[in-house]
Amino acid sequence: MEPGATGAGQLDNKDIPIPSAENYEDEDSGSEDGDDLGQQLEDVQAENFHHEPVPVPKHANLFPEDETMQLFHDTLSAAEEIGLIPPGYGLLPDEWEDGIYPSYEIFKSGRRSGKVLCVPLPDSIWQLHAEMWGRALAALNELSYMNK
């Protein structure tokens, strides 16, 4: 670890230069020969904002024609209108453990799934989102079968 580093990618506060307002004059004063505070801040923080660009992942449009995209939107709207909840996506009470919407989801990550993260899923928020995702996935599946 570099001297002065906290371990979280940040320097200790004592190592961060603080711009002074000593030479700063109000914009209305008409003076242009002193450094302004904005420029001092920009200079101090410049090293934090000049990272190499990150390549954008390639992506393909799921819908080869505009008509297919419109069909997807129409199908999704119709499913939402009638409150369709598709089976097989873990969205129906008979697909839940003990018939109760799950209050949390456990994610395993890291090498050999050594780290475990328990994420709360309050049904008042997540159930509606999950149902929308399920409808969208079901519509995409149907469209993909139609296009084969």
Explain this structure.
Residues 23-36 have a biased composition (Acidic residues). Residues 1-61 are annotated as: Disordered. There is one protein chain. With 148 residues, the chain is mainly α. The chain is built from 3 helices and 2 strands. A hairpin with a 5-residue loop joins strand 1 and strand 2 (115-120). The longest helix is centred in the C-terminal third of the chain and has 24 residues, at 123-146. The chain is extended and about 65 Å long. It starts with 36 loop residues before the first helix and ends with a helix.
Short description:
The protein is mainly alpha-helical. Helices cover 33% and strands 8% of the residues. Helix 2 (66-81) packs across helix 3.
